[in-house]
Design brief:
Elements: H1 8-12, H2 17-36, H3 39-52, H4 63-75, H5 80-92, H6 99-132, H7 135-141, H8 147-169, H9 172-184, H10 197-219, H11 229-240, H12 252-270, H13 278-288, H14 299-318, H15 324-342, H16 347-370, H17 399-402, H18 411-418, H19 427-446, H20 451-454, H21 459-478, H22 483-497, H23 500-508, H24 511-514, H25 519-536, H26 542-558, H27 562-578, H28 581-598, H29 609-618, H30 623-637, H31 652-674, H32 676-685, H33 687-700, H34 702-706
């Protein structure tokens, strides 16, 4: 203690020094009482402490330490009558309206409960009954004085804290029955109607303390599930929200503080048995994830709240699911819920989202390296609940059963979600995103692969690429480096590390990345897609090419920025050049036909994207000739929809063919008008074919003139 206070200037820098010093005094007192070990002396010291109360005004916050000192002393006394008298004295000399005094009293009563739990609970029950009689006063006070509302709030807040600390300090050997009785009688439900933020914080803290008491018992081998745990979580979420009727004062800062305390309590509650059901998990996440969108100020409170929220997400991951596969499902659920923040337009939201993803992934990696208990035992947090080698123990099970497999990580989808952030405008976001991608592949290479797809991963190349990624991570932590060069290296490594199936999924899910809210990120994503197609296009089957074309066309249609759209069009050209161009052309023409028959393409905002695709094909050195040949082949084979002489109808198949034919004519027009030098050269080389095809089609369409359908003829 002397060493701790030897440098007063240093202590001024530490905001928690008073709390640490008070704890030292209590520990010093506890050891002194043990050393003296004389009941008469302890009683006389207790009387001396009791006389000290007269030196304090009722409202003086410093009496909080006196409550704790007397509480520690009563813990050592066997005389129940003496203990009861002194508890009454403590309550009489406490101003419950002052939070620090209220907390000191609760901690003092809690210390007494370590040896006299039943005496304390009896006293608290009496106070609660008296407080209950004030319920009518609370109702009437809405029509008279607000002070009475606060009086009841203060009493309930103090009571809740006293119950909480009584549970926290009580012996773990008897705590289960007492906690079950407390929760079972729904005593805490009576405290839900408090209105003042500090009172809400006190009730939430009490619930948190109950959970911590369960964790402490589990740490010494006395494990039991907390009854009505989900109901307690519901209480915390209720107290965390803002009352619709709360128009007393604007409690914005106090509300944030309440929410910070509530997130800590949620973490405690989800960390204990019983296992968190999916509905409760979803309810907790729905109520809390919105905090990622909070403004940056007041920074100290908001940062603390966000930290608590990230810790909560880690706890949900660790204590949900029963084996590796179900934990991987939990991981993906959490990460997908974070996606809106990872890709938000606000920088601070993207930073928070990426940091949260990274922290949750670190937790998952630790689970993978530590192994998953097949019975769902909790491997980390402060819970040391371990399956004691029973028939469901995990030690005898093969690792493939306990660990998730690589495919359960949905790597392709996840990497595409974080790749845009590696090209972000914010330096911190870029660094964390690269770490996320490195972490994903680090985890994936340690997991078993399904036999059907294990052969398409070259382990030597993969470890080399992972090593390169981890080098990038260490470099960007130490020094500032060329952003473009770093991004290219990341893309090159990812290109090697993805399996065929993962690459396919990545390309299928590229639309959001290509349309990212940050233009620099969107452009970077498209460049990455082009690299993947050039280097790995040969791995794509026809169905994969089709779906990738659909995704890229969706991106082109969604983008109105000319430069970004042009980049996507280049990616479509690249796909046609490096894979099966017929599949790409077919899909482009199908979408063109659908648009022509269902939309007014002259009124589309930003222009019709498919027309731009036709222009790009006609100006491409390799694709121009191929696309022209393709158009001519369609002209030769497509029939024309005409009226059925008997029914007077056009069937749907003929109608679809008609749309394709209109699209083909539109494509040829675009080719002839917008192909530039490359397109002109392609037409000149195939001039007889183009002219004869048009003349033959014109002859084939003469029947439409009689029907008044002249658009195609024109």
């Amino acid at each position: 203690m002397k060493a701790y206070i030897s440098d007063p200037e240093d202590l001024k820098q530490d905001s928690t020094y008073q709390e640490i010093w008070d704890n030292m005094i209590i520990n010093f007192l506890a050891e002194s009482l043990d050393v003296v070990n004389d009941n008469v002396w302890v009683i006389s010291l207790g009387d001396a402490f009791a006389r000290q109360y007269d030196l304090y005004a009722t409202s003086d916050g410093h009496s909080a330490l006196l409550h704790r000192c007397l509480g520690m002393l009563l813990q050592k006394v066997d005389d129940r009558i003496y203990v009861r008298e002194k508890i009454d004295l403590m309550c009489r000399h406490s101003s419950m309206s002052i939070p620090v005094n209220r907390l000191g009293l609760a901690q003092g009563i809690g210390l007494v409960a370590a040896s006299h739990l039943d005496t304390v609970l009896e006293k608290l029950k009496n106070i609660l009954e008296n407080a209950g009689q004030s319920a009518l006063q609370r109702f009437l006070s809405f029509f008279s004085f607000r002070e009475k509302v606060e009086d009841v709030d203060d009493t309930y807040a103090a009571l809740a804290l006293m119950y909480g600390y009584a549970a926290r300090y009580a012996p773990s050997t008897v705590i289960e029955a007492r906690i079950n009785a407390l929760v079972g009688t729904d005593m805490l439900g009576r405290f839900l109607h408090v209105q003042h933020p500090t009172a809400k914080q006190a009730v939430i803290t009490a619930i948190d303390l109950l959970g911590r008491a369960v964790i402490s018992a589990a740490e010494i081998g006395i494990s039991f599930p907390l009854q009505r745990r989900d109901q307690l979580l519901e209480y915390v979420l209720t107290l965390m929200g803002r009352d619709q009727s709360d128009d007393l004062v604007d409690f914005s800062i106090e509300l944030l503080q309440t929410q910070t305390v509530a997130l800590s309590a949620c973490t405690t509650l989800v960390s204990i048995e019983p296992r968190l059901p999916m509905e409760t998990r979803n309810r907790v996440m729905k109520a809390t994830l919105g905090f990622f969108a909070l403004p940056t100020e007041p920074s100290n409170i908001v940062e603390s709240l966000i930290t608590n929220l990230i810790i909560l997400l880690g706890a949900i991951l660790l204590t949900s699911g029963e084996d590796g596969r179900s934990r991987a499902e939990q991981l993906l659920h959490i990460l997908r819920q974070l996606d809106p923040y990872v890709s938000a337009s606000a920088e601070h939201q993207r930073r928070r989202g990426c940091v949260a993803v990274h922290e949750v992934l670190v937790k998952f990696r630790n689970l993978c390296s530590g192994g998953f208990g097949a019975s769902g035992s909790y491997p980390t947090l402060s819970l040391k609940h371990i399956d004691q080698g029973g028939p469901r123990g995990s030690s005898s099970l093969p690792s493939a059963f306990v660990l998730p497999n690589r495919d359960s990580l949905s790597l392709g989808e996840r990497i595409m979600a974080y790749l845009p952030r590696c090209a972000d405008t914010d330096d911190e976001v870029r660094k964390v995103a690269i770490q996320i991608i490195a972490l994903f592949f680090n985890i994936s290479l340690s997991l078993p692969k399904q036999k059907t797809s294990a052969n398409d991963i070259d382990l030597e190349s993969s470890y080399g690429a992972l090593s390169s990624l981890e080098d990038i991570v260490s470099i960007i932590r130490r020094a500032s480096v060329d952003q473009i060069e770093v991004f290219h290296r990341v893309v090159s490594s990812v290109c090697i590390l993805l399996s065929k199936d993962e690459l396919v999924v990545l390309l299928h899910s590229c639309t959001l990345a290509a349309c990212d809210k940050v233009k620099q990120s969107a452009d970077g994503s498209i460049q990455a897609i082009i690299v993947f197609i050039i280097r790995r296009g040969k791995d794509l089957r026809e169905a994969d090419v089709l779906r990738t074309t659909q995704s890229l066309l969706s991106s082109a249609i969604a983008l109105t920025d000319k430069h970004s759209r042009q980049e996507v069009l280049n990616a479509i050209s690249c796909l046609a050049e490096n894979t099966n161009h017929i599949v790409v052309f077919d899909e482009v023409l199908f979408v063109a036909g659908r648009d022509i028959c269902t939309k007014d393409i002259t009124r589309i905002r930003g222009g019709w994207a498919i027309q731009d695709v036709f222009y790009v094909f006609s100006q491409h050195k390799v694709l121009a000739t191929l696309f022209l040949e393709y158009i001519l082949s369609i002209l030769h084979k497509e029939p024309v929809a005409t009226n059925d002489s008997e029914k007077g109808e056009i069937n749907s198949e003929s109608s679809a063919d008609d749309c394709i034919l209109q699209a083909t004519m539109f494509a040829l027009n675009a080719f002839l008008r917008g192909g530039g030098k490359v397109g002109k050269q392609a037409v000149e080389q195939s001039y007889p074919s183009v002219l004869s095809a048009l003349i033959l089609k014109l002859g084939g369409l003469h029947g439409l003139a009689e029907l008044g359908r002249n658009e195609l003829l024109r």
